[in-house]
Amino acid sequence: MTGPVGTLREAPARFAGGLTEIAPQTYAWLQPNGDWSESNCGLVVGGDAAVLIDTAWDLRLTRRILAAVADEVGVPIRTVVATHADGDHVNGLQLLPDAEFVCAEAARDELAGENPGALRWSQTGVHLLRRFAIGPPRRFGAYLDWMLSPFEFRGIEVRGPDRTFAGRLQLTVGDRELHLHHLGPAHTAGDTIVHVPDAATVFAGDLLFTGVTPNGWTGPVAGWQAALHAIAALEPEVIVPGHGPVSDLGAVAELDRYWSWLTEHASRLLADGVSVDDAAEAIVRSDAFAAEPWGRWDCPERTVCNIVLIDRARRGVPTHITHRERPLIMWKVARLAARLRAGATPA
């Protein structure tokens, strides 16, 4: 049997982790607290087969999920669906070689750019920065070392899909139907939800973060909000986010409002010539931010990523943050995290 599932770092768990039945023969694997790469998965059982929705960021954590499924459900996984191509949702796919792997065409294209081997080198590099560098490089190393340290990237191989789709796809497992909707680009280009009508459930992937600040790698924000509206139109009773506890349509509406609020406040500062970095810090330190629900969400430093998307859309340039650009963005994220922890006043 699998043991208790806590957070991957030292924070106390804000919600129960592990495999839980959220509707008849419909399960969520929850990884508290939904911080960086503390990602959720789903399982839908029909007859003598099951569909797994997403995996974890490394093989060890994925094996734990598969062990829980075997112990508590005991039905073989015949199909695995990826909600998008970020490593924390796909890096365990190789452990299911006999299951058909399905994803959106855009996610397939993004998978081609994934490089788990580079993460191993990054772990070594940021650990050295944390130990031996000084000033901003040490701050950057400390943040990424904290972010990457719970994971083991050795032996991970990128697996391509067996089947792809554009728009929508219906899967059948036993006597049950799963409806896949490609709603990206938003968090990534390949963002896909899995709607299980007979359970009134949606597995939203990273289109929904609950209790955790979202981070956008692709955008635009308008696309993300359109995706949230599409989820709401399905009228699910239960929604499993990519990160955070199981939620409902209230969380969808809250995130939609967050994006409108952030766009309004960030656009005003950017129009006045404030930099992305300073706008992010000014916003998360403001009384207006603290008064909103997102003022209590984890990872406020991710606001930097989101204002990058808003700034690029405002300037009429592509919003997508490339893999080459991500280290620079994470440098800015690490800077804001350090300043917030230190309680420093804005520069």
From TrEMBL:
Q: Which SUPFAM superfamilies match?
A: Metallo-hydrolase/oxidoreductase
Pfam families attached to this UniProt entry: Lactamase_B
List residues of the Metallo-beta-lactamase domain.
38-243
Question: Gene3D superfamilies under this entry?
Answer: Ribonuclease Z/Hydroxyacylglutathione hydrolase-like (3.60.15.10)
Highest taxon of the lineage = Bacteria
Which PANTHER family does the UniProt record give? ACYL-COENZYME A THIOESTERASE MBLAC2, METALLO-BETA-LACTAMASE DOMAIN-CONTAINING
This protein's name: MBL fold metallo-hydrolase
Name the species this protein comes from. Answer: Svornostia abyssi
